[in-house]
């Protein structure tokens, strides 16, 4: 890490750069080079996404929707009504609906791990987004502090300039006063 970055870290963040991770170092370097730090995290996640990941996300998206819940509820109503009342004697799956329970258990046994895989991927995506947000926020904070420093320097130099101007004007007033005092008073 170069001397300017170390100075920036000490001055703005009040921390030694040795304690920084690669993320903070990248932000400081980006600030120094005046480059952007933002990136499209969706592209980064999509680049590492496998076919199985996309399938898991699709199943989770469908399985967690109201349309799936309502369609599955309609399927259950049709199944139970058909087997309990309509097909009374020749029912495909008579009353305790053992086959329906088997089907539901298999769907749940397959759907639950797939949804958990999708949730784990979403958690990892959230971590990536949070790290990116931290980088952007840290850079914004550093830039704001740097702007405050520049404004303070401008204000300080302006105050020094005003002080010098006041001293110059006071000296002019003193000379004018001396000239007026030196003149004889005429009445």
Automatic annotation (TrEMBL):
<feature type="transmembrane region" description="Helical">
    <location>
        <begin position="66"/>
        <end position="86"/>
    </location>
</feature>
<dbReference type="InterPro" id="IPR010406">
    <property type="entry name" value="DUF1003"/>
</dbReference>
<dbReference type="Pfam" id="PF06210">
    <property type="entry name" value="DUF1003"/>
</dbReference>
<keyword id="KW-0472">Membrane</keyword>
<keyword id="KW-1133">Transmembrane helix</keyword>
<feature type="transmembrane region" description="Helical">
    <location>
        <begin position="98"/>
        <end position="117"/>
    </location>
</feature>
<protein>
    <submittedName>
        <fullName>DUF1003 domain-containing protein</fullName>
    </submittedName>
</protein>
<keyword id="KW-0812">Transmembrane</keyword>
